[in-house]
Design a protein that fits this description.
globular; 21 helices; alpha+beta; 50% helix; transferase; Citrate_synthase; single chain; Citrate synthase; Citrate_synthase_AS; four-stranded mixed β-sheet; acyltransferase activity, acyl groups converted into alkyl on transfer; Citrate Synthase, domain 1; Cytochrome p450-Terp, domain 2
């Protein structure tokens, strides 16, 4: 295996895998994976670091785009802010993993023997290295993860002591956080590892994290829903097969294939979504991958992020219950209109970025057409797909009236008997670890800084907007108010005056809770004068 992967590494611009002994810098815990097959390759990381350094030196002061006030109040939506290596979301083509569309990765990534869906191991390899792996490379990665899969006894005990009423995502986050106890990165950092080597133990923690997620997810499922004793990991099987077996569905080849597809298409979706952003943000403080991904899971647990496929399934089953299993198109149209007229949205339709049908939806639809074309719930999903976009366009309710990934996944899981909707986000969480950890590895390799954006409270924001008016929209007046040098003054409430250094007024240091209102006039020299009434304390006017 060494020769093929070394050849692939020579072609890749950024690479992290090689076959051979682990470098000492990896700080590998001796208790895991006694026969590893995938490992960081440190000698090429400095070249990547120099590329970033040169790019910043040549272009670091160039603007990457404007910031508008709506983005400050609108959750930074659409604001280009950070680097994400693994994927990019194109409004017209959907997600691209290292430049490849979903149909391209479905065709190119290795498959399990007798299977037709891509193996998630191959997708992780692609995210980290930028290269399509060989069948042999993916097989070795499967074995590596299977060898690392055991979770510590104390983590098992934590999960076993959780009440079944505790939400599965709370248990998931709790267990992942507890894995920090054996973090290779935390140990290496405490021992004073050179910062240029941070990526090595980060890689090891990431491999361990991904490997252990099926055992955690399986234990949560069986504890909460009472489905019996957890079986052992099969060291010769792939990741999705073992996850399916731990959930109790491993004997159904179609469900295993669904899990291969599900994990692959949910693995990464750029860095702007809450879970990916949270993982990157917390990781930027040099928290180890376990802590960083626990933060990502807590974001994913929020109803605006990870609850969407449950909401779709609830909406569909309510419709099916009211209209019957073979509802007419007219009946479905009436139900959709009643949803909209009731002030609700049609769940699973529309997307913040996409302007076409989500390719992840299409991939799941094709799976359903192949494996469950007569399923009643799938038929309703297909019927809704035919009807809803035209209604949304007519109602003017969406820039993108097309379905996203969440419009389909719940129906597929339900078909195979995984009906516990509260658990669905756990599967999402297993999948999203691939993209978040791949980015953490590259953040450490390229020396990414701690995320520390600037924030604005309303008073400084108001004054910024006033400054814009000073430059572009003066009201005429005849009074003068200048100092002896001819510079304009700011007239404060109460009559006090402060000098300003020309028309570009800069105000800083309002106490929290302060507020201000202002009026504009033009002084005789043509320079602006700003009259402010201040509530709160003005600390500095420069």
């Amino acid at each position: 295996m060494a020769a093929p992967i070394r050849s692939a590494l020579k072609k890749a611009s950024f690479v992290l895998f090689y076959h051979g002994p682990r470098p000492p810098s990896a700080h590998r815990p001796v208790s895991n994976s006694p026969s590893p097959h995938s490992s960081p390759r440190p000698e090429l990381i400095p070249a990547a670091q120099e590329t970033v350094k040169a790019t910043r030196a040549a272009h670091g002061k160039k603007s990457f785009g404007p910031v508008i006030v709506d983005q400050l109040y609108g959750g930074m939506r659409g604001l280009p802010a950070l680097i994400w290596e693994g994927s990019v979301l194109d409004p017209d083509e959907g997600i691209r993993f290292r430049g490849k569309t979903i149909p391209e990765i479905q065709a190119a990534l290795p498959k399990a023997p007798g299977g037709s869906e891509p193996l998630p191991e191959g997708l992780f390899w692609l995210l980290v290295t930028g290269e399509i792996p060989s069948q042999e490379q993916v097989t070795e990665l499967s074995k590596d993860w299977a060898a690392r899969a055991a979770i510590p006894d104390f983590v098992e005990e934590i999960l076993d002591r959780c009440p079944p009423t505790l939400h599965p995502m709370s248990q998931f986050s709790l267990a992942v956080t507890a894995l920090n106890h054996n973090s290779a990165f935390a140990k290496a950092y405490a021992e004073g590892i050179n910062k240029r080597e941070y990526w090595g133990p980060t890689f090891e923690d990431s491999m361990d994290l991904i490997a252990k997620l099926p055992n955690i997810a399986g234990r949560i499922y069986r504890n909460v829903y009472g489905t019996g004793k957890l079986p052992a990991i099969d060291l010769q099987k792939d990741y999705a097969y073992n996850l399916s077996t731990l959930l109790g569905f491993g004997e159904n080849p179609a469900f295993v294939e669904l899990m291969r597809l599900y994990i692959t298409i949910h693995s990464d979706h750029e860095g702007g979504n809450v879970s990916a952003h949270a993982g990157k943000l917390v990781g930027s403080a040099l928290s180890d991958p376990f802590l960083a991904y626990a933060a990502a899971l807590n974001g994913l647990a929020g109803p605006l992020h990870g609850l969407a496929n449950q909401e779709v399934l609830v909406w569909l089953t309510k419709m099916q219950s009211k209209l019957g299993e073979d509802a007419s198109d007219d009946a479905v149209k009436e139900y959709v209109w009643s949803t909209l007229k009731g002030g609700q949205v049609v769940p699973g339709y529309g997307h913040a970025v996409l302007r076409k049908t989500d390719p992840r939806y299409i991939a799941q639809r094709e799976f359903a057409l192949k494996h469950l074309p007569e399923d009643k719930l799938f038929k309703l999903v297909a019927q809704v797909y035919k009807i809803v976009p035209n209604i949304l366009l007519e109602a003017g309710k969406a820039k993108n009236p097309w379905p996203n990934v969440d419009a389909h996944s719940g129906a597929l899981l339900t078909h195979y008997g995984l009906t516990q909707m509260q658990y669905y986000t756990v599967l999402f969480g297993v999948s999203r670890a691939f993209g978040v950890t791949a980015q953490l590895i590259w953040d450490r390799a390229l020396g990414a800084r701690e995320c520390f954006p600037s924030f604005s409270s309303p008073p400084p924001l108001f004054l910024f907007l006033v400054r814009s008016r000073l430059s572009h929209d003066f009201s005429l007046g005849s009074d003068r108010n200048e100092n002896s040098a001819g510079a304009p003054k700011v007239v404060l409430h109460g009559g006090d005056q402060r000098d300003v250094q020309g028309p570009e007024l800069s105000v800083a240091g309002f106490e929290r809770g302060g507020s201000c209102v202002g009026s504009l006039a033009r002084v005789g020299s043509g320079r602006p004068r700003l009259g402010l009434q201040i509530k709160g304390n003005l600390v500095d006017v420069a």
